[in-house]
Specification:
The complex is a heterodimer.
Chain A: E1 4-13, E2 16-25, E3 28-34, E4 41-47, H1 50-65
Antiparallel strand pairs in A: 1-2, 2-3, 3-4
Chain B: E1 11-12, H1 14-20, E2 26-32, H2 37-40, E3 47-50, H3 66-75, E4 83-87, H4 89-104, E5 110-113, H5 116-122, H6 157-166, E6 170-173, H7 177-181, E7 204-205, H8 221-229, E8 239-242, H9 247-259, E9 265-268, H10 271-275
Classes of the chains: A alpha+beta, B alpha/beta.
């Protein structure tokens, strides 16, 4: 099996940069959301469409990022 | 004329892996941050190691103990003369962590697939799905015999404390700028794992990601030399790399040691989860000072 339609893009989620990586494998779409810097995975979703996979990954990323506290330096 | 990597033999490209992954004397191993990635699809013939259970001591905070490491390699069909090719997600974070441990235990021929999992996917190359091939995939492999650990590749806390006090080493903090300044205590979205934010006083900030191109491959030797040279990294002075738990810094350790040929570089795998939790340890907050300002 070969991955198809690989794409990568950065989106802003509540002031945090999130990297969305999506590709199609067989008849499913796979999306991973990571936090760009440093790049740790926040969500991995498999769905029937690209839109659904990315929307669900972003939702989960948003939920996790909302827990991150910014400290005064 | 462009400079070459100091040890180009430690890198293979995706095409090489596609051609050699199933060679009898080659073992391709995927090591991911996200240990579920392998099941989704992997390089045909590759096996997987889990960084959080197989490449560490699961009781004491430490690297994999020698007997466990020997058992892992034997079960993986790896002999002392096997060419081990590592790759993974996040531009090879934990692939570098695995390479660091393989070098600590004296494995001779270990390489990184340049670009890692991301490049393989982006190129639309074949993926296998399903479980790891059986442990006896290489028939007749003898039990693996690891060398005694070479701790000249690793920094422990007393060495780092001494270096911090004396200024005898260049300290490279490879975390994100926000972790370096102390604005956040862990990568965004992950649980906080330290009591204090900031960095080891005197450390330089060189986030690991600056060593990679957009496609996940390593930047050229010239670009890497420029990046680290600007932070005072020179051949004659020891370098200590650290991050939060030691995997990002093993990536930087790999770049410095094998791509730039810096001999005296060590990975401080205790990193910020050790230093940032120490009672009484000196901590600096805010942006890095300019090189030369201490």
């Amino acid at each position: 099996m070969k991955p198809e339609n690989f794409s990568e893009r950065k989106v802003d989620v509540d002031g945090w940069q999130v990297n969305l990586t999506t590709y199609k494998l067989g008849d499913k779409w796979h999306t991973k959301a990571d936090n760009v810097s440093p790049g740790a995975a926040l969500a991995r979703v498999v769905a029937d469409t690209r839109e659904d996979a990315e929307a669900r990954a972003l939702l989960r990323a948003k939920e996790l990022l909302s827990r991150t506290k910014r400290h005064t330096v | 004329m462009s400079a070459a990597y100091a040890h180009p033999e430690v890198l293979v490209d995706t095409e090489w892996v596609a051609s050699h992954a199933k060679d009898v004397n080659v073992r391709v191993v995927e090591v991911d941050v996200d240990t579920k990635a392998y099941e989704e699809g992997h390089v045909p013939g590759a096996i997987a190691w889990a960084w959080n259970t197989q490449l560490c001591d699961t009781v004491v905070r430490d690297i994999a103990p020698k007997p466990a490491f020997e058992a892992l390699l034997t079960q993986s069909g790896i002999g002392n003369d096997t060419t081990v090719v590592l790759y993974g997600d996040n531009n090879n974070w934990f692939a570098a962590w695995a390479l660091w441990q393989l070098k600590i235990y004296g494995h001779k021929d270990v390489r990184i697939m340049n670009g890692g999992r991301k490049k393989w996917l982006a190129e639309g190359r074949d993926l296998d799905t399903g479980a790891t091939p059986g442990p006896s995939a290489t028939p007749g492999t003898s039990p693996y015999r690891a060398s005694e650990p070479d701790y000249s590749l690793r920094a422990f806390l007393p060495q780092v404390q001494q270096a911090q006090k004396s200024g005898s080493a260049v300290m490279i903090d490879v975390r994100s700028p926000q972790e370096f300044t102390g604005e956040i205590l862990a990568p965004p979205g992950l649980p906080e794992t330290c009591q204090r934010g900031g960095h080891i006083p005197g450390a330089r900030s060189v986030p690991w990601g600056k060593t990679c191109n957009d496609d996940g491959t390593f930047k050229s030797a010239d670009e890497l030399q420029k990046l680290y040279g600007a932070q005072g990294v020179i051949q004659s002075k020891p370098v200590i790399a650290y991050c939060r738990i030691g995997e990002r810094s093993s990536h930087t350790w790999f770049v410095l040691k094998y791509l730039l040929g810096v001999n005296n570089v060590v990975n401080y795998d205790g990193s910020w989860t050790e230093w940032g939790n120490l009672v009484g340890a000196p901590v600096e907050k805010g942006a890095a000072k300019a090189v030369g300002q201490g």
